[in-house]
Amino acid sequence: MAKRIDISGLTAYYGSHKAIEDISMTVEPRSVTAFIGPSGCGKSTFLRTLNRMHEVTPGGRVEGKVLLDDENLYASNVDPVTVRRTVGMVFQRPNPFPTMSIFDNVAAGLRLNGSYRKSELNDIVEKSLRGANLWNEVKDRLNKPGSGLSGGQQQRLCIARAIAVEPDVLLMDEPCSALDPISTLAIEDLIGELKERFTIVIVTHNMQQAARVSDRTAFFNLAAVGKPGRLIEIDETERIFSNPSVQATEDYISGRFG
Amino acid sequence: MSHAPTGVMERPQPAPPAPKKSSLGSRSLPRLAPLGFAVVAVALGVGLSLAAGWESRIQWGMLSALFFLVISYVATTVVENQRQAKDRLATSVMWVCFLVAVVPLASLLWTTVVRGAERLDGYFLTHSMAGVLGFEESGGVYHALIGTLEQVGIATVISVPLGLLTAVYLVEYGKGSLAKAVTFFVDVMTGIPSIVAGLFILSIMLIANLEPSGLMGALALTILMIPVVVRSTEEMLKLVPNELREASLALGIPKWRTILKVVLPTAIGGITTGVMLAIARIAGETAPIILLVFGSQLINTNPFEGAQSSLPFYIYEQYKIGEVASYDRAWAAALVLIAFVMILNLVARGIARWKAPKTGR
Amino acid sequence: MASTTPTDTPPAPPVDRPTPRSTGRMGDKVFLGLSRGSGILLLVIMASIAVFLTYRSVIAISKNEGNFLTTFDWNPAGDPPVFGIAVLLFGTVVSSIIAMVIAVPIAVGIALFISHYAPRKLAAPIAYVVDLLAAVPSIVYGIWGALVLVPHLEGLNLWLDEYLGWTYIFEKTEVGIARSLFTVGILLAIMILPIVTSVSREVFLQVPKMNEEAALALGATRWEVIRLSVLPFGRSGIISASMLGLGRALGETMAVATVLSPNFLISLHVLNPGGGTFAQNIAAKFGEADAFGRDALIASGLVLFVLTLLVNGAARLIIARRKEYSGANA
């Protein structure tokens, strides 16, 4: 199911402000691609253009192409709702539906997309929670509200919710930044397992994390203060961290700025 | 972790009825389609209503709205899909809700302006009803204007200081159970029906053997006005940044002078707006006036003695006479009242907007 | 705290210091006294409303030969005096319920429209238009209702009678123009629309962005976002907004007094002219009432007071609870 993403000439705006400019890259299927770069360089904005969440922000609009296995997400006949159903997303802060039980949270996306028999739903919820390494912790309290879980558990619940609808791509926007080290480790392990099935793109501030979980890494930077963010380079993670081809990347990674 | 893959890998078998993944693209209606639906629906609604010989425009509107909802739902279901159709239906319902609210407002304002303008002139504004019989076409609203201005004026003079002080207490001093009680009862007081406020003053009048007068009406209006002033002032005082207070206190200025010289002046724009909106609200109150001021056909400039009239009371009185001429007077007075209230509203909001950048940060 | 600060500050302007300090102490005391006094005065007013109304009501009820709760008549001037609130309570509750049934869904629709659907540029003007509805004085609603709305409702009433007459409620057994509880309910619905709308709107705007994004990212349509995130979050807000509206509807006087053609009967045929409400009855009967008649009216007003107090108090408590709840979770 995992699909390749081809981005070409992508520029995103907030109103008249240009946030990112002319980004082109390819994200390989069944791999983890990490986006790194200093704050405000537009990596989260770029991530949100990949499932058309950017245009939800007031004034947000996008130019350019995002091809998901040769289909342009921004073609005029494409419904953003279908796109988001195909490209799942996990946010910086865990955001389970506060009034729903754990079970209903995982089932929420499925229920939107059609009717399922109770037994089918049970199977999928269990499978998704297992997939998110959460099943053993919550199997006895599926009917309790999701907001009662710890932060790390909530984030895994959100991942379970996202993978329950079998997306082709999973976008993660700094999924560990609100979590403690142990929960972070759990999520990182999980990412390693999930890449067998999904194309994963993760934004992270933590370079060790990028080095640990990703196969390829893209480095973003601002040309100057007030200028839009740009893609500096994208390459195998090993190369980016050992021998990047651009000086700015090396400066950033070795901690000389950012 | 060992358990995870088992559930994951065996995906071919009980796989959910995975919706077709072939294509992201889908057919969709053009953006202006809803407008087209609306035109068709209104045409159908009006046409059918005319054919059925219904006279009421309300029925025309309801039928058109129904057609609009059905057409947009069915069309979206056919061209797009059921989920989109539900979304479209919700959007259409909300548009209809908004129109349902606008139609009465427009009708009310339109009727008042058109009917009121027939009779409204300089004569109407400068003469009382002294010696005018209900069916006669002369007479005016002067005595009622005087009454309204005096009663509202007195109520304002009492309410504003009380309301301001209470709000200052709640924001600047208030902690503990007294403040909590005051906050709660201010909220509850906002909901007191005007007729109950009137009955309260009436019961005092019965006990103390007082005669009806403009003052009694003004006291009832005060009860209605205070909570509004407290609420709006409180909101405004909360907007004043704490740094300002601290800066002033750090200069050694006592708290009461800080409040008077720094806090209140900073919030004055918003407070003025709140007071004007409160005035606009009580100026239209009729019920307490019926009970406490009694109404009069004559000019009585003394609010402390004798019956008076007021604009809203005058409208009610003229309406109850039930003659063509008195209906005309009622509409004309309604126009005067609405103009008064709307101008207050507009000016108040203007002040709020004009003052906002200085305090709102 | 304020009164102690002067001693700590550097002795910059030595000339002024003695004066502000002393007026500071005194001034602070006076000012605090005044403002606390105003707060207390408000409580006293609330208490005395209850006490005075109760006092006069007791006078009235003690001489009442009918049953205050169950008598279908209002004749305090008679010999013996007989009056009861059964019809008024019924009419007040029924007309308010009709108003709620009509107004709450529409108000929630408008609130959602303003907070989530309307184009950004339209949202503020639309909110303003709805607020204008609140600015119109109730007496103007009254004459508009009586002279414009009533004739326009004839057709609708015939319709309801014809197609929904089997429900009993919408059966119109009496001819006569639409000066009925149903018309009153419609008018009250228009009048409470703004408050229900504005309170719900506030709540909907407070829905955390991340809850909505959670739904969006699952591939939810706008309506599904509202169903999954906005409505569950706003439910208690809608309830309290409705109760605030209910409080308004219960106590409305002039719009009812002008539109209704009252009688002292209880009938569930809401399309028939007739019935009465507390506030309408007070306004209508006051002119002809003697001193005792006024006490009787005050007694009915006390019931209305308690009714609105309960409804408004409950609404405020729900709002307050919700604030604590959402604050703890944030």
TrEMBL record, chain A:
One of its GO terms (molecular function) is ATP hydrolysis activity. This is Phosphate ABC transporter ATP-binding protein. InterPro entries: AAA+_ATPase, ABC_transporter-like_ATP-bd, ABC_transporter-like_CS, P-loop_NTPase, PstB-like. GO terms for biological process: phosphate ion transmembrane transport. One of its GO terms (cellular component) is membrane. Keywords: ATP-binding, Nucleotide-binding, Translocase, Transport. Residues 5-247 form the ABC transporter domain. PANTHER family: ABC TRANSPORTER I FAMILY MEMBER 17.
UniProtKB/TrEMBL annotation, chain B:
The keyword Ribosomal protein does not apply. Residues 1-25 are annotated as: Disordered. Part of the binding-protein-dependent transport system for phosphate; probably responsible for the translocation of the substrate across the membrane. It is found in: Cell membrane. This is Phosphate transport system permease protein PstA. It is a multi-pass membrane protein. It comes from the Bacteria. GO terms for molecular function: phosphate transmembrane transporter activity. PROSITE patterns: ABC_TM1. Keywords: Cell membrane, Membrane, Phosphate transport, Transmembrane, Transmembrane helix, Transport. One of its GO terms (biological process) is phosphate ion transmembrane transport. GO terms for cellular component: plasma membrane.
TrEMBL record, chain C:
Its main location: membrane. Belongs to the binding-protein-dependent transport system permease family. CysTW subfamily. Residues 8-17 have a biased composition (Pro residues). CDD domains: TM_PBP2. Residues 89-315 form the ABC transmembrane type-1 domain. Part of the binding-protein-dependent transport system for phosphate; probably responsible for the translocation of the substrate across the membrane. The chain crosses the membrane at residues 39-62, 82-114, 126-150, 176-196, 249-271, 296-319. Keywords: Cell membrane, Membrane, Phosphate transport, Transmembrane, Transmembrane helix, Transport. The keyword Thylakoid does not apply. It is found in: Cell membrane. One of its GO terms (molecular function) is phosphate transmembrane transporter activity. One of its GO terms (cellular component) is plasma membrane. This is Phosphate transport system permease protein. Pfam families: BPD_transp_1 (PF00528). GO terms for biological process: phosphate ion transport. Residues 1-24 are annotated as: Disordered. It comes from Streptomyces violaceoruber. It is a multi-pass membrane protein.
